[in-house]
């Protein structure tokens, strides 16, 4: 859900030009993967065999679909919650083939004014295409096929799902305080490298190809998370492409303390593992 276009350009290059293994086929009837402006009443539910969703939850809970993928464009008509312009599902004039307009509901809960349960929704392939065109990406003949766009949107969605799971690991430190954190807003900052990313680059590591800042609502308290996306190489069978560095921003004493605690726990675990290996 971040700077879709900057990430998409790298994804498309890998998909179109790399000799990657054929992606697995989704269950029959699974809706095309797709993100944002929620329409009342929800979308079509995935088939029961789909591992990404819970059947009973899909039946009992019909979240109102809302939102957009956070691609930062100009300042006109931008939604401040996700840095997205109004939804555009219209085919581009020079578009070489039609694209699906279906969108996938994410597992990421969204903050609502009335407390209703809603989840962020990923963009459709058509919305994704239009977003890339707005960023100046132009397609040449035979550069990309419908299958490539399908893979790109799946990679995008998988990266966001992975990022949310990493956020939840940090939020587990505050489980007693809040058991149901939600994503309030987010935005892409692909050209604004975090201090940590810059320091890593000084040590010889690559810079991330994308960065997102997510604002998580911890039961009334806003917590900012920084997510750096690094090139992870080939796409795996779960459409995971990027290596994520997710952590709370060091803009509050509580966030600093959380990072110190996690750093200590990691150091302690590694030390205990080494001692155990030496004793065996």
TrEMBL record:
Name listed for the protein in its UniProt record: Holocytochrome c-type synthase
Subcellular location: Mitochondrion inner membrane
Family as reported in the entry's similarity comment: Belongs to the cytochrome c-type heme lyase family.
Keyword Heme: yes
Species name: Aedes aegypti
PANTHER family (alphabetical): CYTOCHROME C1 HEME LYASE, HOLOCYTOCHROME C-TYPE SYNTHASE
Any one GO MF annotation of this record: metal ion binding
Catalytic activity: holo-[cytochrome c] = apo-[cytochrome c] + heme b
